[in-house]
TrEMBL record:
Family membership: Belongs to the group II decarboxylase family.
Protein name, per record: Aminotransferase class V-fold PLP-dependent enzyme
Keyword Transferase (UniProt): yes
Superkingdom, taxonomy of origin: Bacteria
UniProt lineage: Bacteria, Bacillati, Actinomycetota, Actinomycetes, Mycobacteriales
Cellular component terms per the entry's GO annotation: cytoplasm
Gene source species: Nocardia arthritidis
Amino acid sequence: MDNQAAILEGRRTGLARSAVRLTGGVSDTARLRQLLEAALTALDESAVLRAGPLPAGGPDAVARRIRTAVDDLVPAEGIGEIAALTRFARVMAAESVDPTDPACQAHLHCPPLAVAVAADAVASVLNPSLDSWDQAPAATVLESRLVAELAGLVGYDPNTAGGVFTSGGTESNLMGLLLAREAVLAERFGVDTVRDGLPAVVLGRMRVYTSAAAHFSMQRSVALLGLGESAVVAIPVDHRQRMDLSVLRRELGRGDTVPLVIAATAGTTDFGSIDPLPELAELARQHRTRLHVDAAYGGGALFSTRLAGLLDGIARADSIALDFHKFGWQPIAAGLFLAGRSADLAPLARQVAYLNPADDEDAGYTSLLHRSLRTSRRPDMLKVAVTLSALGRNGIGELVDACHELARYAADRIDAHDRLELTASPVLSTVVFRYRGPRYPDAAAIDAINAALRRELLATGTAIIGRTDLGAESGGVRLKFTLLNPHTTRADVDTLIAAVVAAGDREAGR
Ligand SMILES: *Cc1c(COP(=O)(O)O)cnc(C)c1O
């Protein structure tokens, strides 16, 4: 406390109060310009500190080097703004993975567009908070309009749809399942679960149907909603990794259950596979339940004239999760939750005396607090709006198509390689495969080789590729390229494949 008081009084320490500058909003960007200049210079200089797409040596070496660079994270006396920024920018750059590197192709972890990063900085400078109109007049207007336009893009009626920007697919899926639960229980049992909690009559009977290939956030959401993960009915997938409709029909036909929602996936994390949306919409209607579509990955296809047809039927969903920080090249976070009917968001509404008093709202000071699970909320919509304005829908579509093309090329090369085995043709921009050694060892040995070769690429800082597991019945460990970098070339893909094969040969030879 003493030190803090001293800083504020501008005495003992070198950091006088006048030197601790606010960004000053639009009226004073001079200090921020200096600081950003210093930070960007440090990033430029750090390019040479790391040879490849990730720091070499593995977790212990990374932790050791970071400790050497930054020994005391909460010092009593500060070292000054430029020194601190430079230090952290350098250590972060040196010890981070670089999603712009063509050998970084593991996760739905995109290289962000420079224009989106700059827009995010504008959002930070102005720091609007979307929980009340009087903290965010411009952001409130822009988010409302962008949500309406994007609702139109998925095929919803922009006048009746609703939505909100979220931290990502995890939050959007939680919202989709929450609102489906509220709607179904209100319709079928006349209960208001927000007020009264879950009625005894439905306990143990509520079910959420999702595919075995769905994102794990479905299970977690169901647990958070108090239903217990055993309420999730994981429908097996067919050979194309899509929800098996015949099994779903059978499960929905069981008496005595309360189907809350069919949670479909449009773009599974591993395969990019898309559940049969029109059929699922029809089943949801027949069984008086809801359809939520997790398009956290596949939503990017909406911008591609070539791929958009894969999402036909999505507008029949009651709600949709989209993520612009995956197939949309935004820095995290940039998630969007859409509901076909804005009235479905009603269970989230809150009237809070110090944020959005009713008479203020009646007078037109509307607040987006009503749509979100969060209170303080930064305008993640701004970078999305800037990006769409800069590139247009077609510009984003070209990036999507470039990654899709690259995935098809990679799949062809893998398929043609005698020591690699392609698991499935790419739907969007992922390629799942595995190494098969020159000798053909047993399944457990193949799994071990594939796991080890990926770790070898990590440890040497050569490449970051994905890994998944198809489960015992389908034959275990698989490797994955998630191609989200539109600047990656075919030659880069060839190099990456060669690195995988070389590492596999080394591991197989052990
Ligand atoms: C990444 C992903 C999510 C989770 O989204 P976050 O933005 O990471 O919260 C949900 N569903 C699918 C299909 C995903 O690929």
